[in-house]
């Protein structure tokens, strides 16, 4: 029996939309009484803990238990999380590692069954989650929902395997998350009618309104990769019951700075109703996913934040199941001994492996656009030296390499890219959506191979190479996650980020941009381990034209 | 391994809102393929099976397995059912009897945890389901939701015990059904904000619109007791995603005639979009409650109807889990050996037990209103014979008696009622909402006692007495349900109904009206086993004034 704890403070009750001074008692993790108090006794406010309605924990490069230690500092007590990244690398075993690690902390992780592994058949992933595998996951009581159904063309045409996954979730009473960027009107309605009940990909208010009209909940996304908050904020005013907040992808350096709390503060500052804002931070996701997260009611698990005021939401303490998990900027969640799992068979490469014999004088060139996941496909002159097509840093023409990490000696795919702007050096990463092969960009073959081999030596991670300088951030868990804390990983990530920018890169987040250059479902020209891919035609194309 | 079955017919797909000729194959209860066919091969249409979104199975006076045998004839394959009546009599043991009986048939019963047992503290019920008992039920994986939260004043004031039941359901990821007759605007929104997501009590379109705006699903009710379809039908036109169909209470004689199919036919005849109508009959409830009921998709359980056309919906065959459960008007579900459970301690009464010594010359009189559950409270002259207040059939002043069935020798409560209009005889019933004591109405004390004692002799049931004529419909299961088939029970019920009408009763459903005269939560004057109750003042009042 734990000892009775009490807090006297102003309770924000989202069910009654009232704020009143109370003395709240809790014991054994549950709220046992909430009695009126006088205002004079009270300091601060109690509000329900925040929920991230859609996130890939792997994007933080942290194991769930380390993610939790950082997130509670910002008042996050629960996530609706899609283990899509580790599933692409390690399959069901990867999902189970996430579940096991998550179960060792008090933080409330709700994992889904990844719906689309691999993203396309045109790349080499570490696993295939077919209908049987997804169904097996959905049978697991720890799996709460079917994660984002990215194959929206397959939903629109009611492709059998796609519908089988959706129907498997439906028949198990588990909700189905959507992912339908840009879908409008009839098409949006048709997508949602298949049984999908959320979407986090809206980029315009009009798109969101179409989806809301079709019965969909909208998760407004503001993460490290995509930022849609400004475009969608006004929905808080007229559709407060249909809005949730999410980050989708949250890098370790940015997780150090804030999470859902940042959106709450911004919405309050912009004049939205406090109750509607806090609903979007917790209640709406709790209700939609039917999460066992408390809402400051008697009998509820004591999941709440004690904040100084209702403007800055400065967090005094965060509680989960009655445990104080953060106090005055210090995380009180324990560090959990990490478990390591990986799929990594690639062996060291030589410079000759990435040389490109010139077949003609014109190239297809990928052009990256800062802050966007799409690339442009352009044509340009090749720079040819000794019958090889080579980089031209003066013309911002760099080499892009993707190496199959699941085979020992696969032939790398090599192409040319514009937009990174570095004058020297190379960076590489085993975070490379969605199959997470090794992706690298650089000026010289020497540095490219150094960066790639550094990732291979670490069996996954991020790296930067310039002559003899080699910096790495090892990610031993699936080549996606560190075993260290957010502070450590965030600092290492920031150091790499700063160094590449010193070398001339003007992109806001070079490693992030790099990690999406092999994602074949986003236009226009991408590079998989199997070659250069024209997303608009959805087929492989030649480098030389 | 069951043999492969195939049907070639026109499939109505509610997910794509299309109709196409297909050959559908199913084996082991699941649909394994749906292939295009040519129209010439097809006869009839395949549509998803119907779901009653809110029903008390006990109101059919049939055990679940017998209810199922009748309902499948009308295309019903699933019910969202609240075992509220048997819970009032037998508590959790009663709910468990329903679950056991239901589990023996292929029909898809989804039971909830009754939220309000007993309905008030001013009557004697057989059980109390407190927060602990409701929580225990909610912990049972066979219990899918919290049944109608009738105590809407308690929700509006956030009464602790009421909120504890709601929160217990919420924390278990189980939806909470509402019951908030007449609630509008802010009050409706406040009721729903507590966590309630359905309502089946709307009587006007405006009331329903207020509740829909607050995020609530509306179950349009058309049963034996309450009929709201005509008033709410237009919602199918503008809010098709928010509408379900239900019966709430369905008597055995009416269950023989039809069920949800009657509403479907009516809505189609009135010109509503076929897909929207069929959604209200199945999809919307399946989605809201996340039921494991098939929707004619590959991989789904083969739950469907094969109908002749899309106007009359004449049912050729009904399938549940691939089993043909009804064919051409014949139920193919097996009869299940019934299990009997009861709480019945009342012992035979004598005429002297219901005599009323006259305390004054003026009485409070209950006036029933045909087709409504409310009564009027009026004052009138007593007819006094030998210092006793007696009935006056010429003035339609009859005696109403309620006998506590849970004690051997409780003093009956006696009052006077107008509106039954019978010239002679008496009827009695152990179906008496919500505590299900014995309620009787009649002209002479002799017939009243005969009718009451007949119910007592049967340990529950309906009866009619006129001199030496005594007719009964025994209801041995909790005094609420027969062990016989719908045909048998429906015929017996119809015979009693006709006989009382022959005796002069002009009420549409005399036994139903009688059964609501002890329901203390409906205005204005009611009679519990503990005495005459003024619902508007919510207190006991004297018979004499």
Structure, explained:
The structure is a homodimer of 545-residue chains. The first copy, chain A, is of the alpha/beta class. Helices cover 27% and strands 28% of the residues of chain A. Chain A contains 15 helices and 30 strands. An eight-stranded mixed β-sheet of chain A has the order 3-2-1-4-13-14-15-16, with helices on one face. In chain A, helix 6 (185-193) packs across helix 7 (205-213) and helix 11 runs antiparallel to helix 12. The longest helix of chain A has 20 residues, at 84-103. At the A-B interface, helix 5 of A face helix 5 of B.
Largest interface: A-B, 35 and 36 residues
Largest sheet of chain A: 8 strands, mixed
Q: Major sheet of chain A: order of its strands?
A: 3-2-1-4-13-14-15-16
What proportion of the residues of chain A form beta strands (DSSP E)? 25-35%
Oligomer class: homodimer
Mean pLDDT of chain A: 95
Q: How many beta-strand elements of chain A?
A: 30
As residue ranges, the low-confidence spans of chain A are none
Shape of chain A: globular
Number of helices of chain A: 15
Question: Helix coverage percent of residues of chain A?
Answer: 25-40%
Q: Kindly, what is the distance between the CA atoms of the first and last residues of chain A, rounded to a whole number of angstroms?
A: 74 Å
- Radius of gyration of chain A over alpha carbons? 24 Å
Look at the helices and sheets of chain A and give the structural class.
Answer: alpha/beta
